[in-house]
Fold:
Amino acid sequence: MSEGLDTVVAVETPEGIVLELRPAGLVVRFYAFLIDWVIRLAVLYGVAMVTVFMGGIGIALWLIIAFACEWFYPIVFELRASGATPGKRACNLKVVMDNGLPVTPAASITRNLLRVADFLPFGFGFAIASMLLRKDYKRLGDIAAATMVVHHQKPGPQPVLADVPPLTPAITLTPRTQAALIALAARAPRLTEERLDELAAIAAPASGDASRSGSRVTMRVLGVAQWALGKRA
Amino acid sequence: MTPLQFEELYAPDWVELELTLERHAAAPSARSISGARFTALYRQTCGHLAIARSRAYPTHLVDRLEHITAQCHQLIYQQREFGMAWLARIIAHDFPVAVRAHGGYVITATLLFLVPTLVMGALVYARPELILSVVSAETASEFDEMYSSSATSIGRLRTVDTDWMMFGHYIRNNISVAFQCFAGGLFGGLGSIFFLAFNGAFGGAIAGYLTGRGLGPTFYSFIVTHAAFELTAIVLAGAAGLRIGHSLLAPGRQTRVQSLIAASRQAVVLLYGVFAMLVVAAVIEAFWSSASWLPASVKYGVAALCWIAVLAYFTLQGRRAR
Structure:
């Protein structure tokens, strides 16, 4: 792909295929952190409402829960099937190992204990600096634990292509060009009519309409896209 | 072959794989999934993905195949072993072996902790006013009160008096100290050195001060039992920190990052043990050490047993049978 510009990390599996991981950047991770922080605060506040009536034992219970929230909240959630704290899940993020596999207990513990170092010198200064400087947006704990926080999104529903009659292309189309035409057809419903016409004009040679444009040409280009997909008249 | 034909031909296999993944997500322990069928489908779908990519098939098709294969890959190659067997192996073998494997770091950490303790203790013992360089005058008088022979519960102020509450306090406080000693190692070990020496000097100053005031007997009978677990745990956390610091400073034939990852993977085993030891220490500190009705001789006897047990555990446990 466009090297240097894209932050995609490629991981090769033993089957010889390449999986693409998309590391999550500072801002989305900050949102996830904020959500987790609010959740923890709410839990501690809720617990305090109950334990305040329980005297010394109540304070003890609260201290122990506060301690667990501080250190084990991220670890427990990361080791579940989702591999993410509630905040990360809300932002469609996930913690994985560098090789794309689910995070191991040792790695999760390492990355979360080293958060202490990330917090220094104040306000997660080192974490922010490290995430801004690195292409894979790792904080110090992620570097040591060999983990990565990645975007985790299900593929969207199959695009519905405008129902136009398929048209045999006027020239031989390379696979890349065919893919570009199909991608254009898939984007068509989201584009304004004028912009679609402009883009279709670039692809016009495919339908034998070189240096022409307009909605009729657009229809013909979309027809070629249908042909590339495999529809025949 | 056109994308439509390709999809039509193989979609049933992909759907089967997707359904299997869903079934597994719903009930991870279900044995209804056939491993042979699953892996065969997975390998086949990997092939489909490679074909779809090389023929530049539509994005949605490639995305779908990528999603399926990524999920299968995670499921097949995941390393998630925890549970009672994992825990038992760490206690019986991994932790003590890791302590011995990090012997040099453990000795260094012990010295980094112990030397400031003794120096500061001797200094404050000789010149009690030096305690004010470590804590404020009010804190010093609080310590006087906590360890006075008339205290109902040693090691704490009269205002905070339930054992459970102190347990919560100790566990939070001690574990934060230990984890700081570890995480500080990420800065070339400097953080670990600082936290070890600082905590050592602080403890030494308090000990020297109280000894000078003639409160030694209550103080030492209070700390000696839980110290077997607490101080060793903090030293071990510091040793783990020194290990990762050293891996950064002297990575050998690896890159610094590779060296750090390898060192962290081994050092984290020490942290499992540190955590367990600090829980034990907090229980003892809250419920046993503070009891003023126990005669000092009983406390020293139990403390001696604890120290012997801890040291024997580190030196003997997990060795291969001859």
